[in-house]
């Protein structure tokens, strides 16, 4: 499997059209075959904006198109095959536990999960797939995931363009961001678990 360093070296040799294709494909693939180093790849490619190799706005729009199409591909797969694939147990990232977890998010927050999707580290492919298994409307989901992808890709490409040759620092920032998000999600999960336990205990006490 190619390393990030070998991918970066290969990207350096590409013409602008090849770089635009790489932006689209990496943004698309991360929704289908997780995990994918798409954020790190976009950070590097964005460094080429500053020297005029590729365009700023074009890069953001192409990345957003790839992210949206990838999201909706996973969404459609989830709608058509999701329940049977989860039940088969053949896909390690599609488990009954993850299904229950994401189902709970959709029940509680609905389309808000789609808006937050791009900013939730490590859950993008899972959310897009399980969104297809929910009752969310396809048109509204497409619009919201496009806006979410546009916001995230703008931040990512602006960061890479700003850091330039120090784009590796962006990886550190993203890793820390992912850790903070994971901790916050865990705390939210603990909060709702504790609240549920308290309510259950009160309900039991009232019956007695």
* Rg over alpha carbons: 19 Å
The major beta sheet can be summarized as: none
**Ends apart, CA distance between termini:** 61 Å
Instruction: Provide mean pLDDT, rounded.
Output: 78
Number of domains: 1
Beta strands, count: 0
In what range is the share of β-strand residues?
under 5%
* Run of helices and strands: HHHHHHHHH
Shape category: globular
Low-confidence stretches: none
The helix content is over 70%
Structural class: mainly alpha
Helices, by number, come to 9
Concise account of the structure shown:
With 208 residues, the protein is an all-alpha fold. The protein has helices at residues 4-12, 16-29, 38-47, 56-88, 96-109, 112-116, 124-133, 138-163, 168-207.
Explain this structure:
- This protein has 208 residues and is mainly alpha-helical.
- It has one domain (4-207).
- The chain contains 9 helices and no strands.
- It has helices at 4-12, 16-29, 38-47, 56-88, 96-109, 112-116, 124-133, 138-163, 168-207.
- Helix 1 packs parallel to helix 3 and helix 4 (56-88) crosses helix 7.
- The longest helix is centred in the C-terminal third of the chain and has 40 residues, at 168-207.
- The radius of gyration is 19 Å and the shape is globular.
- The mean pLDDT is 78.
Set out the fold topology:
Blueprint lengths: L3 H9 L3 H14 L8 H10 L8 H33 L7 H14 L2 H5 L7 H10 L4 H26 L4 H40 L1
Helix pairs in contact: 1-3, 2-3, 2-4, 3-8, 3-9, 4-7, 4-8, 5-7
